[in-house]
Design a protein that fits this description.
Acetylates the N-terminal alanine of ribosomal protein bS18. It is a single chain. The chain is built from 4 helices and 7 strands; from the N terminus they run βααβββαβαββ. By secondary structure, the chain is of the alpha+beta class. It has a single domain, classed as Aminopeptidase, CATH 3.40.630.
Length: 150
């Protein structure tokens, strides 16, 4: 099994992650413009790559000063799932949030994505609300989860 490396998500990763977005999120996938906008805004994005530099997963965090952050996305290639890459990506985002003095981290996750919800719960995220029909193309609800630093 190859080594997983975490590094900064850069503009040249966008084309490579678009097919992953389509596979993982279907009609709710992000467009190239959405990724470009996130990077242009200075949001913190990380990429997990293998020995050859192939993107296995990616994640983003938007910090809203003074002390709030939102996990924007976490995606892991289907053939790389179950290897702890999602945990590595989430840990990298939470470490960046802590570095920036974030007191509250929030995220939205599809209400039918129990696997992701379990991961977030392992890191102290708790449900605080539901956004009905948040994922518009599929009319899927989003569960809003929050993690507070003590």
């Amino acid at each position: 099994m190859s080594q997983v490396r975490l590094g900064r998500f850069r503009w040249w990763h966008i084309e490579e992650v678009l097919p992953l977005e389509a596979d993982l999120f279907g009609a709710d996938r992000w467009s190239p413009a959405m990724f470009w906008n996130e990077l242009a805004n200075g949001d913190h994005y990380v990429a997990a790559t293998d020995d050859d530099g192939t993107v296995l997963g990616y994640a983003g965090l938007m910090v809203a000063p003074p002390d709030e952050a939102w996990v924007q996305t976490i995606g892991v290639r289907r053939d790389a799932q179950g290897r702890g890459i999602g945990r590595l990506l989430l840990e990298a985002l939470l470490a960046e949030a802590a570095r920036r003095g974030v007191r509250s981290t929030l995220l939205e996750v599809a209400a039918d994505n129990a696997r992701a919800q379990r991961l977030y719960a392992m890191y102290g995220f708790e449900p605080i609300g539901v956004r009905r029909g948040y994922y518009q193309s599929s009319n899927t609800d989003a569960l809003v989860m929050q993690r507070n630093e003590d």
